[in-house]
Automatic annotation (TrEMBL):
Keyword tRNA processing assigned: no
Sequence ranges assigned to domain Rieske in this UniProt record: 9-113
Keywords of this entry: 2Fe-2S, Iron, Iron-sulfur, Metal-binding, Oxidoreductase
Superkingdom of origin: Bacteria
Keyword check for Acetylation: no
One of the record's GO molecular function terms: iron ion binding
Record's protein name: Oxidoreductase
Gene3D superfamilies: Rieske [2Fe-2S] iron-sulphur domain (2.102.10.10)
CDD domains: Rieske_RO_Alpha_N
Pfam families: Rieske (PF00355)
Amino acid sequence: MPLESALVWTPVALSADLPAASVIPARLADAALAVWRAQDGTVSAVADRCPHRGMRLSHGFVRGEALSCIYHGWRYGKSGRCLAIPAHPALTPPETIRVATYRAAERDGIVWVTASQEAGAVPAHDGFLGLRSVTVAASPARLAASLGGTLDGSVIDGTIGGVTARLLLASSGEEGVLLVHLLIASGAADAGKIAASRALEGLRRQAETATITGEAA
Ligand code: FES
């Protein structure tokens, strides 16, 4: 799976990091997104730019089933359409006022987004559970080498903190920096989760140090 394509399902966040009625910034290749979860649990993804004056919608807030811009309070529904303009409470906003939307889905505790209407099934990672996400200033090959794992496209399989683990890689939006989602075997005990989470910090340091010192990947 290419890291820089907006046309494939891309893991942008862990479900646990997007509670009900919240919004977070995310990246899909070159695009800045606002990914939000309505009160009813539905996840949506939109361009991170308010059509009114360009404020980042990821700085906004969610009330019920709508995402509001922090600047002048324009409210957007799951379809991207503007639902209300507080300065003109009697006005029904024209249908043409809308923010660009992306397909969003959840599977195995991961939030996936794509710009393609043709993208097939959301990737499955059965038997794994999302634990945490970090950014790592290293290449996929360097990260795989530091883990002693196997790199296949944007997935690294290996063991971390003594736990069977899978790393899902995505673009962070910053050149040379990966967004890394750590998944661990879903049956792992709490002690294993803690060990894996700590080991991820060590892995990050190791991969970044190797990048700086130019060790062979
Ligand atoms: S910039 Fe978003 S409502 Fe004005």
